[in-house]
Amino acid sequence: MLAPNTILQNRYRIQRELGRGGMGAVYEALDERLNRIVAVKETLVETEDLRRAFEREARLLANLRHSALPKVIDHFTEGAGQFLVMEYIGGDDLSALLKRRDRPFPLSDVLRWADEILAALSYLHAQQPPIIHRDIKPANLKLTAQNEITLLDFGLAKGHAGGMTRVTSDKSLYGYTPQYAPLEQVNGEGTSARSDIYALAATLYHLLTNRVPPAASQRAASIVQTGIDPLQSLGTLNAEVPAAISTILMKAMSLKQAERPASANEMRASLREGLRTVVSPTVAVPPNQSPNLQRNAELQQTIAAPPLNSWPRPLPVTPLSSVSHAPQRARARGGRWWILASVFLGFVALTALTFGVARFVLNGGGNTPAPTPTPTPSANDNVPSPYRELLPSVVSLMMQDANGKTIRQASGFFVREDEIVTT
């Protein structure tokens, strides 16, 4: 254990211990050269071969660039330990948050985190050679103050470990946690991308049920002895988890590698598709429905943004709002001038008629017939009779259209553009 104020490489001043495991410890330190906080991981090694392997893998990790992965800044050997200096990620890990909640996380949150971590795993597994994390668990997922998820503890990450030797302790050479590790890793048979998929699925299982899954070795022993897998479905432990999501995660936790999703991208696409079977993204969820379904609908917008390369691209669709209505508007504006003119002429004619009747009455009638007002042509006369009755009449100072939008205008006709007759 490194004491506070210990200085490494004449640069990194240890401030406090952040965590400790069977292979070493992680410290918060001050980079006095750049005046910034960093995370320093100490890994205890005993042989020259392990030292060379650590240096090789540290250089590999230093070239990684992904938003869900911390950046590796430096690596060095000092005393009996080898050190990896990484970007410090503030916030709490999901294991600590889950303990404080003492109940499962919302499905929407967990699936959003899963989508981000699967994107990071897809990036790691695509490296040459592939990088296998080998110890994914809630304690290695940190939620930042910006509500972003980060995958930590890359001191345990390793290039493709197909030739790993069998171990007899509860920790492998590079470390793992039994409740989240796949059977092939526990048995020392080597790991692959599917090993990380198992570990992530076991982690999601824990986050969605608030129950640690049984270890793979325990499950295997139970199946051999009783024929029963003690791993319960997620829906049994949490009714809020849809059957489609439960099925995907149970498949990813298969004891047989070949039965799991072949890649992180495949599992990512499956989870997205599983969510679509729960709530259609084109149908709004009424406010009186289950809060969980409402969260699922919101999540569709969150995780649908970064497209997967394996998904077909939809053909572009022109929104209705972008269709030009210029000709109709021109006709509408022209029609309104004729309508206003008609109203004005009608008003003049009505005034003249009123004065004529008044004079006739005041004079006691007469033999001279009152003049017949000349009919005023109307803009409606140009509209075919089947549609004429659809045109509205004179409106007041304020009215609303069919969409609820308030329209203010003085007297006259208001004609909706979609009611104008076109040929």
3D architecture notes:
The protein is of the alpha+beta class and 423 residues long. It has 3 domains: 7-87, Phosphorylase Kinase, domain 1 (2-Layer Sandwich); 92-303, Transferase(Phosphotransferase) domain 1 (Transferase(Phosphotransferase), domain 1, Orthogonal Bundle), CATH 1.10.510; 326-419, no CATH class. Helices cover 37% and strands 14% of the residues. It is built from 12 helices and 13 strands. The protein has helices at residues 48-62, 94-101, 107-125, 183-186, 193-209, 216-226, 234-237, 243-252, 264-278, 291-303, 326-362, 385-388; strands at 7-8, 12-21, 24-31, 36-44, 72-78, 81-87, 92-93, 131-132, 141-143, 149-151, 158-159, 398-400, 406-408. Strand 12 (398-400) and strand 13 form a beta hairpin. It is globular and about 100 Å long. The model is unreliable at 160-174, 281-297, 308-335 and 382-423 (pLDDT under 50).
